[in-house]
Amino acid sequence: MILNPYLYLQKTAVDLNSSFYWRGIPAQVLLVTCALMLACLPARATEIVDRIVAVVNGQVITSYDLDRELAPYLMQLSGRKLNAQDEQQLTVVRKKLLDRLVDDILLLMEAKRLNLEVNDTEVENHIRQFRQSNSMTEEDLGRQLQRENMTREEYKRNIRESMLRHRVLSFMVRRKVLVTDEEILRYYDEHKSDYTQAKEVELGLILLPPNEDSDGLVQRLGKAEISFEEAARKYSKGPGAQSGGSIGRLKWSELASQWREALAQIHPGEISEPFSIDGNKAILKLKAIIPGKERSLDEVREEIRQKLYDPKYAVQYAEYMQDLKTKAIVDIRF
Q1: pTM, two decimal places
Q2: Dihedral, 294, 296, 297, 298 alpha carbons, nearest 10
Q3: Hey, is 197 helix, strand or coil?
Q4: Are residues 206 and 260 in the same domain?
Q5: Residues 214-231 pLDDT 10s
Q6: Residue pair 67/37 in contact by the 8 Å Cβ criterion
Q7: Which residues does the UniProt record annotate as the domain PpiC (predicted)?
Q8: What is the C-alpha separation between 97 and 16, in angstroms, rounded?
């Protein structure tokens, strides 16, 4: 587990994977990932390890700061040589991460201008909630911080800063984003198929080799000389044989045509006629039919609200950050 002080900022960089919010990467991981990056990137990369990559109203961002943010991404590339496409993607990711670091600084400066504060009690409450949600004791948290080479004060500072940025965004951006009930209803009416639960069937399967007498087995099943479950355990070579042939629920629309044709002739509790699957003979038991169901507007209202909210928020966030950058002195040296 990597402690994530950015739980309050899940929407501040809408086009980045959440792993890029991670801070407090262990020192040994940083050394490994930085070494990996230097080994994989062109030789010129060694010239920029410790240099300043940006200055925001006089506050510097170093290449070390940027590489720390990049560490989780580099861990995904560990163990393989980067090709040209990887290097191009790495450059794009570094640029996005640098943009977010600039945004972070601007938001903290804006929090100071607005006289926003987060007190110790709020920070400790957040830590307690974090521990409870992850079933961690205070001792567990201490050991995790130690593994990540982070002091509790550093962790508290990261949390405080993320909460401050969240408050700025709540005050300056989120309050401007509105999704009306009319928009939700219109979206629901236009996308009802997306909110319909597909018809499903619960099945049992007996899969027999070509030389087995499938018709004879069906007759024995019909006469109750042997149960479907017993026959599956004894004769079937297919999935779920030792579980009495049970293969669980399957969506009707995703079944092969010969399966649907076989099942269309029977009712729940009945056995199909044998049919061919890749040269083998299959017998199905229709255990149950779960009809399709349209989810009501009330069931999906919040889901739709979030779907409509996210792109609106992205636009407002981009406009707000661009306004802050226009008023600031930002020198990018990437």
Answers
A1: 0.60
A2: -150
A3: strand
A4: yes
A5: 899 999 999 999 999 999
A6: yes
A7: 198-288
A8: 8
11 in a structural domain: no
Q: Which two tokens stand for residue 172?
A: 């300056």
Main-chain phi, psi angles of 86, to 5 degrees: -60, -45
Count of domains forming the chain: 2
Residue whose token pair is 């027999």:
208
**Is 305 a member of any domain?**
no
Q: Which residue has the tokens 């640029």?
A: 95
Closest Cα partner for 56 from 334, 332, 320, 312? 332
- What's the rounded Cα separation, in Å, for the pair 32 and 29? 5
pLDDT digits (tens, 9 = 90+) for 130-165: 999 999 999 999 999 998 888 999 999 999 999 999
Kindly write down the DSSP assignment for every residue of 88-157, as one continuous string: HHHHHHHHHHHHHHHHHHHHHHHHHHTT----HHHHHHHHHHHHHHTT--HHHHHHHHHHTT--HHHHHH
